[in-house]
Amino acid sequence: MTGYHTLAETEKAMATHLKGLPIDMAAAEAVSNLYRAANIARNHLTQTVLKDVDLTWTAFVVLWVTWMWDGIESRHAAEEAAISKATLTGVVQTLERRGLLARFGDSDDRRLVRLRLTNEGRSLMQKLYPVFNAEEQFIVSTLSPRVRSTMTRGLRAIVAHLESQSDTRRP
Question: Boundaries of each HTH marR-type domain copy (predicted)?
């Protein structure tokens, strides 16, 4: 594939280009591998599971958070999916046309828009998630239960750290 480099090639290029710079190479490699693993896992799940039901990754995440919270404010769905409110609008319109999601006003504050899965949307997620999870299992299948647990704790620690500190790091 043109423009694609293996993990070993990427790490070798990093070591070459960053040599002599005052950086923490272990931190750079850890974050680089975190990013690379997240992207390759996302692409794998998109190609093996979501493509078959004509969902993008973003549409799946919007359905997922709406399903998990039994409905969600649109602004929170955008935050959870790490997308802008404008992008969410297009995703929601597509999911509405497909009969998977419904929008409605909040009973306490009419300025807020809430999202809720339709019966069809709930049914899709209940059928889709076991297939999705089978691929999640495949993704981590080379890791022992102990390594998975350690990895999960480490990733949770990163998430908790950034959730608690992200506002203090902005210029």
Answer: 27-160
- DSSP lists the bridge partners of residue 116 as 102
Q: Is 103 buried (19+), middle (13-18) or exposed (0-12) by CB count in 10 A?
A: middle
Domain boundaries, the chain: 24-166
Residue with tokens 């993008």, as numbered in its chain? 56
Could you give the CA distance from residue 121 to residue 64 in angstroms, rounded to a whole number?
A: 10
Cβ–Cβ < 8 Å for 79, 115? no
Topology, domain 24-166: Arc Repressor Mutant, subunit A (1.10.10)
This prediction has a pTM of 0.87
Output the six-digit token pair for 21.
């710079």
Long-range contacts of 54-58 (CB under 8 A, 24+ apart): 56/91, 58/83, 58/87, 58/91
Which pLDDT does position 107 carry in this prediction? 75
- Give 10-residue mean pLDDT values along the chain (171 residues): 71 88 91 92 96 97 96 94 94 97 84 93 98 98 97 95 78 58
Q: Distance (Å, rounded) from C-alpha 93 to C-alpha 107?
A: 21
> Which residue, 116, 137, 160, is CA-closest to 49?
137
